[in-house]
# Entry
Amino acid sequence: MRVRKILHMDLDAFFCSVEELRDPSLKGKAFAVGGQPGSRGVISTASYAARKFGVHSALPTGQALRLCPGLILVSSFHSGYEEASRRVMQIVGDYSPLVETLSIDEAFLDVSDLQDTPLQIARSLQSRINRETNLPCSIGAATNMLVAKIANDHGKHLHKDPTPPNAITIVEPGTEAAFLAPLTIDALWGVGPKTAERLTALHIHTIGDLADQSLDDMARLFGQSGRDLVERARGIDTREVQVEHEAKSISQETTYDQDTADEEYLLKTIRRLSANVGSQLRKQGITAKTIRIKIRWANFETHTRQIALAQPTDCDSVITSSAIELFQKIWAEGKKVRLIGVGSAQFSQEPVQLNLLEKTDDREKRLLRSVDELRERFGKQIVYHGFDLDSVKKHKGGL
# Structure
């Protein structure tokens, strides 16, 4: 019987690692990407030195500065992150054509057809990424995606030093349930705070406790998801690595370190990602006929939707409104989101023909190109979108 070999690769504190390459003086220091002083922004990623103070992703800037008064704040460098990710994923692709990219810094790969052991493959992959990109990464390996992901998270969690873990954690075939058994229940996919609270009330504290439950009993208490939870607790996961064969596309996505069900926060992310997609389209001198949105829930279930436009566009407002329309079709209130992305496809280099009713779009195009030029010359922070200033206005009572 063929034994599957699945790897989960995750770049350690990716944004911070890229920033350390840009500015070596940051290495070893407590710093964070995102969140500006005096604003209601949030931290995107924190260095491991900062994490020792309790600073983490999605933490409000003010709270982060109270936890770590000497915290250095660094503005995001999106183009640099995208280029670093592209180089890493090229290396990952050298090991297998079966790669499922979860986000800019995370991917599954199926290496079942390689002769080497999972440990040998993981060491080789990690070594190449370290050597060729100077970026740290951690890898988990198992016979399925569920256990490989949990193994990687566990290996990183065991690392206590204020440095990137660069860990490798291997779960041998046949030991999946034993590996999972002692872990706390919240380490399992699909177990959020509310589910964990209900399980704890039933005296189910570890994954092993859950694995010992009757499928029928859990189904009566939790419905079909109860059966799924017990099977996961037993280390069972038959999903295949899903390779996304997309036509040429331009997209932006964000993975939250802490899953969120805050609709306003999600919509703000969509506006920012849409603006980035529009900027890339204009930079390449092309327009898109199709707009897409991608949502990955906390249990890794992923949904995508797309819409065909009446005519191609590179305008932020059109991309944003289309993405929000798609989001509203997928959004389930209270359901936590792990990843959200906005994309575009079906490109054209022909100029859009404007009629007399489209002068507003024409003005927006000229304005956006002027903004793009300013950002190209002076950096992205020179001009803000209105939605970026909303929180500042609320905080200061107006500008």
Summary: Residues 351-360, 378-384, 387-399 have pLDDT under 50 and may be disordered. Residues 178-233 form a domain with the DNA polymerase; domain 1 fold (CATH 1.10.150.20). Residues 315 and 365 are 6 Å apart (CA to CA).
